[in-house]
Design goal:
- 79% of the residues lie in helices and 0% in strands.
- The chain is mainly α.
- It has one domain.
- It is elongated and about 45 Å long.
Length: 67
Amino acid sequence: MKKEQSFDTKSSTKDQIEGTARNLTGKIEEATGKTLGNRRLEAKGDIDQVLGHAQKKVGELKKVLGQ
């Protein structure tokens, strides 16, 4: 039986990855909202971008602090 490989990701790295992913999702939502004329989707995209950027910064701060 093979043992499954496990990747233990630091909290700081996880926050940076998830923040980047959320930011990208927000950009896609914003562009889709603009294209379709859907203001709600466009606004949701804007919010996700801000939250993603904030989460990425939290990860960077954790990395500096060694967490």
